[in-house]
Amino acid sequence: MSAEAAKSAFEEIKLFMAKRGKVQEKRGKIALLTVKGDIRDIGKNIVKILLENYNFDVIDLGKNVEPSIVVETVIKENIRLVGLSALMTTTVVYMEETIRLLKEIKPECRIMVGGAVLNKEYADKIGADFFAMSGVAKEFFKE
Predict the structure, then answer these.
(1) Is the pTM for the entire model greater than 0.90?
(2) Could you report the per-residue pLDDT of 66-77, keeping only the tens digit for each?
(3) Within 13 Å of residue 7, how many CA atoms lie on the same side as its CB?
(4) Which residue from 4, 92, 134, 138 has the highest number of Cβ atoms inside 10 Å of its Cβ?
(5) Any domain includes 21
(6) What is the C-alpha to C-alpha distance for residues 43 and 137, in angstroms, rounded to an integer?
């Protein structure tokens, strides 16, 4: 229920921001998703709104997304940046699989990862190009 409430709030924020902004040319396509096995997408949805506010064309693949679907979409839409999200430790293996497939099939595509279970070292280990620490992780790793 809280995820649905957050989704409604995001839509209201998006409408408010659209009313205030000017129409600008899109800055490029970005695919966002929560990896296979993970159904939590609040963080991904926050990132989506921010990117749309900065005029990126965001293709939201949703949650629990198979690695093959990501690769198909990247090829079909000629996407140069993919954002992968994972909240559960059991699903980061699918993040790694998705990155491996993308690097194999479309090596010029860049990959950013985020989620409460990730850290910079793990992101580097699985081949991500960029890492974004989640708000939850920031609280955990405070000095």
Answers:
(1) no
(2) 999 999 999 999
(3) 7
(4) 92
(5) no
(6) 12
